Amino acid sequence: MTRPLTTNAIDKPVWIPATVCSDIVEEACDALLSDKCTSDEDCEVFRNVNRDALLSALQFLNACLVPKTRFKCANKERAFQKFHQAMLVELNVLPLEKLLCPFSATTMAFAVFELLLKRNYDLKKQTQSNNGDEVPEGEVGIVEHIAGFVLFNLKKQAKRINNVAERELVEDCLNALETPEVISTSKTNLPSLTQVLDRGGLTKPTQNICQMFVALEPIFRSTFGDVQSFDFQIYFSKCVASDSVSTCLYEGLYKVNAKKNTKEKLLSGIVKVYFNVRVHHEYKVYMDRHKLSTKTGKQKKSLRKSLQE
Question: How many CA atoms lie within 13 A of 299 on its CB side?
């Protein structure tokens, strides 16, 4: 038995933000020059402006960044609020307006800040690896079906929570992770058993949560491989450290007014149930192979005995 693991036990790396640099300024200038909406006069200004002076004038944007959390949308919203406030301060904008006209200065600051947000808060696109850890396209539907079972299972667990307020909060979180399906009139008259057999009575997760489970599967495969001894603590540590897993969940819970502790408990519960399902499947496959090899061995032994007779 492994001891319960909380996310507080995970040592998280210190976040070092990307700041305004010459590469970002150059990229912003190129983007504005290639934009068809940019006037010829502005293009001339962006093309000839002194890059070093522009870089120095844009350094105030670094103070608009906020500490990175799992809430990507919230990070960007808070950063944009600080950006708006900073643009109202004459001391920040004046050096930029001396290099460019007021309209061009605002356009340049916005373009650079957008690139700054992209580098700091957007997830890197995952590329297909050659080690076979990615979920094959034909198995994605299976993983999504397991995701429905996990949410269904957690809803049953939530009903056993004694504290009414806590129970309702957890149920709100779980409801936010599923896609509401409109039941057609043709289904409403069906027997209850038939309705239960439709997807096994499971919930249908949202796209964000489906992506989360698709990220959980390769972590399981790469962590354990062919090993028949499974440790939840190791698996959970890797899942918490994965931006793909935590961000997909927290984005799905963005509109739910729940505390961080509640969301972390939900993350732990989801990973735990998924881990149990996968371990059960791996052991079942192992036992089926063992039974098949034993049966084949007995058949061969019986055949040899009959041939000897």
Answer: 6
- The secondary structure element, H or E, covering residue 215 is helix 207-224
Distance in angstroms (rounded) separating the CA atoms of residues 65 and 76: 9
Tokens of 47: 């093309």
Rounded mean pLDDT of 223-228? 65
Q: Which long-range contacts (CB under 8 A, 24 or more apart) does 154-160 make?
A: 154/266, 154/269, 154/270, 154/273, 155/203, 157/269
Closest C-alpha to 146, from 69, 215, 210: 210
> 132 falls in which pLDDT band (50, 70, 90)?
very low
Of residues 212, 198, 228, the one with CA closest to residue 271? 212
Average pLDDT in the chain: 77
Alpha helix locations (H) across the chain? 22-34, 40-48, 51-57, 72-87, 90-99, 102-121, 140-158, 164-176, 185-188, 192-197, 207-224, 232-241, 243-252, 260-308
